[in-house]
Amino acid sequence: MRTIAWLMLITFLASAPVVAQRLSDQTSAAAKAHFIENLLRQMTTEEKIGQLRLNCIGVQSPREQLLEEAAASRLGGIFYAVGRADLREFQDAALRSRLKIPLFFAYDVIHGHRTIFPIGIGLASTWDTGAITLAGRIAAQEASADGLDMVFSPMVDITRDPRWGRASEGWGEDAWLSALYTSTMVQALQGSTLGAAGNVMASAKHFALYGAPEGGRDYNSVDMSLPRMYQDYLPPYHAAVKAGVGAMMLTYIAINGVPATSNTWLIRDLLRKQWRFKGLIISDFNAVADLVSHGVASTDREAAMLAIRAGLNMSMSDTLFRDELPGLLRSGAVSQEEVDDAVREVLGAKYDLGLFADPYLRIGAAKDDPADIHAETRMHREQARDVARKSLVLLKNQRNALPLDKSARIAVVGPLAKSRLDILGNWSSIATSAQAVSVYDGIAHALDAPDRLLYARGADVTDDPRILDYLNVPGANPADVEVDPRSPTRMLQEAVDVARQADVVVAVVGESRGMSYEGASRASLGLPGYQARLISALKATGKPLVLVLMNGRPLSIGKEHDMADAVLETWYSGTEGGNAIADVLFGDYNPSGKLPITFPRSVGQVPTYYNHLNTSKPPQADAPRAVASRYIDEQNGPLYPFGFGLSYTQFSLSDITLTRQSLKRGEVLGASVVLKNTGQRAGETVVQLYLRDISASISRPVKELKRYQKILLQAGEERTLYFNLSEEDLKFYNAQLEHAAEAGAFSVMIGLDSRDVKERRFELF
Ligand code: NOJ
């Protein structure tokens, strides 16, 4: 009896903090609801509609007009404006309005703000949630210190198609990994409470499936089965919701014929009802007006009606809500309730951001404004260098071409070697290229004797007039792709002459940052312009050849891979990219990055992804002439597989040990391997665990990532790694969209990449 009483007391005491927390959550939710309802009751229709507008200074809405609209309560938020003095003026205007409802300020802070970190696909290559947290925290602090409340980030669109220029922004091709990174980044940006300076509201995007446009062509439509959506594309958006993301931005594209902006199923059924998303839903830039181009609305009025009825809260940039909602309300085509619901979400976001308590929470007082917004003291270089080093992926290293000897005579060649702009990558917020470190700069800093450093440009990134016309906006300085006035032959000859004088050639090649960007899809995936010819000419000199790739998407560079002695993928590595790359080239940092996306052999293979289905006729090594699911002019399989990346040391993996051969529901299956550093120096690698459901009610992928561990081992050290699996890990969405594990045989695979794995089988009962 006494024991039971003690147990009850202990249980009560243990649960008391949880109960107290729940009560305080309920009290604050009630206070918030009360505040919002009270405000809503006082608002005129015009003021309500004003809250649904997120605008930027532009041709249609000049600064003076926006200031007037803010003062008249006809604006909910502003984006693309930055800097405390500027934003203060807008907030002052909003606080002159009748109800003094503050504005919120948003910006595209995607991979850093003043200090730029690697682009999304680079951050994803770290396989290090600590690095992602660091990048996110610093971005939030820098953005907040510039007066911003919301960032249009993280970008979580899965893609299996490197033709899509926005492959650069996301986390790659895997649903499980992308979901993990998404919740990490949301938590990093938002911190423990949104109502504090230093934390910003994340707006995950682009809901949903933006990374799967047909043909990899940006803005193109997507037609996808529900099981594939749920299994392979939706998990990161769902992870954002589960992590408490404050806002969600809708994609431009049409999903199975219905644009996201007017897609009731997507917004109301999936996001609101199934996932219970409580935050703000915003459109992409001009997307409400785009409903007319999509051909689902015949007039602007109809477009506004469809969007608000589908559940969109705030429209970005176009003026359709302002111009059309009053008439739609009068005619009864849109109900007061529909508008009020949207307004509640905007006010709710402002409440959560702490703006009703203090509209200047992030803007601060004028006396505290920084004298120089680009001051070095406002940068976080050390952290940027640390994260950038982790994002670099060593793809080839034969005959120990790397690391380089610091006393060698090095020829740095290539159109991207001296670029401080490209290394920042696209969406580099308000960073200045003058503060970035190019690859050439980084190598020069690292060398004992910089006089042994030689340089030649060798080629332009591209000379394709179609690309130049598109990317080089007239009058922009610098141009996206700089064109050297010398002839291609002359540049090539200079590079060859320089290479001949050197002990080793480092060729920095790839794409300009604008080539891997919104609207920049490519139909070919080779090195553009004369760069491939440059690599062949450098190879012909017989000097050791190191390729440093700078690009935002997987490239198909099989020939260049064969010619090079070493290949280092650097993506666009940010402000400190050049120093980080030099750290790896000279061995001051041992590379540990792994690819979060597959590199195809040729563009014709696309989409190429590791978690494909087996098909009726998988190719068989012992029957190469048999009919099979393959190309007759290209091998199956990637140039570099998902999860791949080398180190300057070597690792071996033992066979897998399982704690049981059969698993009952509710039980745990342990899988272990011994990882050994068999090389001469300390190094880190990522041990990856994949599962396969051998036979199920629908065909299941040949493998799917479920766990990983990033491990640092000293030379000669070994460690046993343990992974626990349960029924939850074996679940998938079946044809009825039930998330369930089916009894039968499974394979567990563990490897240092997705191709080369150890395997054991077990049964689920
Ligand atoms: C369009 C892009 O698709 C989106 O990612 C971005 O946040 C908005 N423009 C605002 O710049």
UniProtKB/TrEMBL annotation:
* Residues in Fibronectin type III-like domain copies: 685-754
Q: What is the lineage of its organism?
A: Bacteria, Pseudomonadati, Pseudomonadota, Gammaproteobacteria, Pseudomonadales
Q: What is its EC number?
A: 3.2.1.21
Please report the name of this protein according to its UniProt entry.
Periplasmic beta-glucosidase
Gene3D superfamilies with a match to the protein in the record: Glycoside hydrolase family 3 C-terminal domain (3.40.50.1700), Glycoside hydrolase, family 3, N-terminal domain (3.20.20.300), Immunoglobulins (2.60.40.10)
**GO molecular function annotations of the record:** beta-glucosidase activity
| GO cellular component: a single term | periplasmic space
Report the family membership. Belongs to the glycosyl hydrolase 3 family.
Task: Report which reactions are catalysed by this protein.
Answer: Hydrolysis of terminal, non-reducing beta-D-glucosyl residues with release of beta-D-glucose
Q: Where is the signal peptide?
A: 1-20
**One matching Pfam family:** Glyco_hydro_3
